[in-house]
Amino acid sequence: MQKKGHSKASVKQIHRRRRMVLLGLMLVTLVLGGINVLKTQHTLGETNDALQTAQVTLKQTKAKRSVLQVQVDQLKNDDYLEKLVRQKYFVAKPGEVLFNIPDTANQISKN
Predict the structure, then answer these.
(1) How many angstroms separate the CA atoms of 80 and 69, rounded?
(2) pLDDT at 108
(3) What are the tens digits of pLDDT across the range 8-54?
(4) CA atoms within 13 A on the CB side of 96
(5) Which of 41, 48, 44 minimizes the C-alpha distance to 33?
(6) Where are the alpha helices (DSSP H) in the chain?
(7) What is the C-alpha radius of gyration for the chain, rounded to an integer number of angstroms?
(8) How far apart are CA 64 and CA 57, in angstroms?
(9) Could you give the CA distance from residue 86 to residue 91 in angstroms, rounded to a whole number?
(10) 18 phi and psi, to 5 degrees?
(11) Which of 34, 44, 78, 111 is 20 to 30 A removed from 26 (C-alpha atoms)?
C-alpha cells in the first residue's frame, strides 16, 4: 500500500523534514519579533527620558517667562520706572543730593 513509490520510512522522513522547517521558521519569526520588541522598548525609554527633560525645561522656561512678565508689567508703571532709573543710574531730582554708601558700611566687622 504505497503511494507513488514512497515507503513509510521516506514519508516519515518527509514529514519530519517539514516539521523541522516549520519549527525553524517559527523560531526565526519569534526571534525577529523579540528583537523588534526590545528595540521598541529601548526607543520608548529614550523618548520618555527626552520627554521628561523637555518638561523640566518647559517648567523652567515658564517660570522665567513669568518673572520677565512681572518685570515688563513693572516697567509700565511710572513710579517703579522712576525708582529704578534713580537707583541704577544715580539720577537725582532737582535740588536733591545723592550719597553713595558702600555695601560694606552696612555690615558689622568681626575684628
Answers:
(1) 15
(2) 65
(3) 889 999 999 999 999 999 999 999 999 999 999 999 999 999 999 99
(4) 8
(5) 41
(6) 8-75, 78-89
(7) 41
(8) 10
(9) 4
(10) -65, -40
(11) 44
Asked whether 91 and 85 are in contact (CB, 8 A), the reply is yes
For residue 110, which amino acid is it? K
Q: Hey, what's the cell of 76?
A: 509700565
Q: What is d(CA 89, CA 82) in angstroms, rounded to the nearest whole number?
A: 10
Q: How far apart are CA 58 and CA 65, in angstroms?
A: 10
The residues, any chain, with a CB within 8 Å of residue 14's CB and separated by 6 or more, are: 6
* Local structure of 3: helix, strand or coil: strand
Number of residues that this document lists for the chain: 111
Predicted TM-score (pTM) of this structure:
0.54
